[in-house]
Amino acid sequence: MTVADARPLALDDWFVRDLGGLYRPWQAAPAPSPELVALNEGLTAELGLDAEALRSPEGVAVLAGAAVPAGATPVAQAYAGHQFGNYSPRLGDGRALLLGELVDAEGRHRDLHLKGSGRTPFARGGDGKAPLGPMLREYIVGEAMHALGVPTTRALAVVTTGEEVARETVQPGAVLARVASSHLRVGTFQYAAATQDADLLRRLTDHAITRHHPHAAQAERPALALLEAVVEVQASLIARWMTVGFIHGVMNTDNMTISGETIDYGPCAFMDAFDLSTVFSSIDHGARYAYGNQPRVAAWNLARFAESLLSLIDDDAERAVELASEVVSSFGERYTRHWSAGLHAKLGLDDEQPQLVQDLLELLAAQHPDHTRFFRALSTAARGDAAPVRDLVIDREAVDAWLERWRAALAAQGRPVEEVADAMDRVNPVYVPRNHKVEEALAAGVAGDLEPFRRLVDVLARPFEERPGLEEYAAPAPGGSAAYVTYCGT
Fold first, then answer.
1. pLDDT per position as a tens digit, 66-89
2. What is the pTM of this model?
3. What is the Cα–Cα distance from 259 to 323, expressed in whole angstroms?
4. Angle made by CA atoms 96, 98, 100, in degrees to the nearest 5
5. Which of 124, 256, 259, 342 is 20 to 30 A distant from 401 in Cα terms?
6. Is the pLDDT reported for residue 2 higher than 50?
7. d(CA 246, CA 435)
């Protein structure tokens, strides 16, 4: 079977058909010698794709952008965005192409998108290419987030191109093939609104509603219902980030999806020691996107989304602002609801215990224990052994006092201790992408040894299951990660 006949290449062009004015047809740069580095077997099966066809020379050429599937119309998508608070009216896919949409085994449309496939009309001076290390990072972190239950784009494959790319270092060039519910962003709506083309903005809004939030079509004001739906899914998403200690690092409006999926794993990282001010990104000089700032930034981004929809919400500008402001203002309550539910589940609490939770947050802020290990160790404390928790803090008396109150709250629920502890273990991971382990895997992969990368991906695929022999993957970096810095790779 040739790649042209294989099911993986049965791509739809829904975005292209609906949204003329929001893309430029384009071809990927040549890849002199494409070679498959990683193929996501689980995602391949989920999509109903032919893995052997993707591994073939023809399939690898498609994944590298060097060949175009029959019927596909590769396009560079247009969008605007606020980057670190500063508005850029024309961003777009500077080094990426949308090949088209796949229909997965459950009948859902999923974008197939290439990243690092060369310059486009939106490149703004860059070379449009990507080094291998950051593409492997996106694969690792995306799969970890998926396993943790966080909505996310996912890597289908990483292919080297046969060229070298110079960033902080010289690395093999690579293309990431990733899958998403779509690549519609807040910045997409900002771009459409800025054109002052009412038809374009309406077509985009209708497309987003049909694709992601179909219930909004039945509302009195569909655009307002879309805004409410996006506020809700983003409130849920950011709450999930916070409960697992994830720091996106570059929460620009062009990196916030309408679907509620995490997108663009550039200077991202997972927090080791609990600290609301944690920043790892080399470009976040003002700590705008620090761990503790993420909910506030999300609300700010959503306000920008609301601004782009005002003309569709109501003909009366003042009324439109009033209605949109009310929805955006609901983000705080929605986020708190999702975050509180997530935190209570991590603590094994069935009933609201606001003071107990607040006291824990103050304790964490003062003691800076390892975030992941602390919450995982609580199930051991629930079972009667507090030593693993106590070993993570300096002020053991303070943690003992809190643990005593927490155990009393658990006992008052009337559920068997083992049942509660088991439930906690299902939401508190043992393994997250520890920054030093990610860097080890990337360095080895760039040097030609992919075994550490494969091993790490395998460990992170089952984050809640403690397995003998994997202790190093559950441990923080020797000496801590205070000096750790991440880079965009652009």
1. 999 877 899 999 999 999 999 999
2. 0.96
3. 22
4. 165
5. 342
6. no
7. 11
Q: How confident is the model at residue 148 (pLDDT cuts 50, 70, 90)?
A: very high
Tokens 């550039």 -> residue = 266
Q: Where are the domains positioned within the chain?
A: 3-183, 187-340
Instruction: Name the residues annotated as catalytic.
Output: 254
Q: Are 259 and 182 in contact (CB under 8 A)?
A: yes
Q: How confident is the model at residue 479 (pLDDT cuts 50, 70, 90)?
A: confident
Q: Do residues 431 and 150 lie in contact, with contact meaning Cβ atoms separated by under 8 Å?
A: no
Torsion-angle region of 159 (φ positive above 0: left; ψ -120 to 50: alpha; else: beta): beta
In whole angstroms, what is the distance from residue 161 CA to residue 127 CA? 14
**Quick one: residue 82, left, alpha or beta (phi over 0 = left, psi -120 to 50 = alpha)?**
beta
Cα distances from 406 to residues 59, 176, 386, 409, 424, in angstroms, run 55, 45, 12, 5, 14
Tens of pLDDT along 227-251? 999 999 999 999 999 999 999 999 9
pLDDT band at residue 255 using 50, 70 and 90 as cut-offs:
very high
From the list 145, 141, 183, 182, the residue with the least C-alpha distance to 158 is: 141
**pLDDT tens, 102-112?**
988 888 999 99
Alpha-carbon distance of 113 to 131, in angstroms, equals: 17
Mean pLDDT of the chain: 95
From 352, 360, 342, 422, select the one nearest 148 (Cα to Cα). Answer: 342
Q: Widest CA span of the chain, in angstroms? A: 68
Residue 3: is its pLDDT beyond 70? no
How far is Cα 421 from Cα 464, in angstroms, rounded to an integer?
A: 13
| Spatial CB neighbours of 428, under 8 Å, sequence gap ≥ 6 | 346, 372, 375, 376, 378, 379, 464
| pLDDT band for position 192 (cuts 50, 70, 90) | very high
